[in-house]
């Protein structure tokens, strides 16, 4: 088993069309539907960055639908 404390690999923060965020091992092909952001670092650094920038975890389609229902803007 690979210990997280010894993990010195580089990760990238990725985002999908629903503006959901995740971490992905840098240099590996991304799954369909995911795009890299400009943020890279250790896994804990990437997760901390996600905590800072992904403040509304609802999918984009839900946020848009709710805005349409309330007559608000996107």
Structural overview:
The protein is an alpha+beta fold and 74 residues long. 30% of the residues lie in helices and 26% in strands. The protein has a three-stranded antiparallel sheet with strand order 2-1-3. Strand 1 (11-16) and strand 2 (21-25) form a beta hairpin. The termini are far apart. The mean pLDDT is 90. This is MbtH protein.
Number of strands: 3
Query: What is the terminal separation in angstroms?
Result: 44 Å
Large-scale geometry: elongated
- Uncertain regions spanning at least 5 consecutive residues: none
Mean pLDDT: 90
Write down the secondary-structure element order: EEEHH
Q: What is the secondary structure topology, with strand pairs?
A:
Blueprint: E1 11-16, E2 21-25, E3 34-41, H1 43-53, H2 60-70
Antiparallel strand pairs: 1-2, 1-3
Protein name: MbtH protein
Pfam families: MbtH
Domain MbtH-like: 2-52
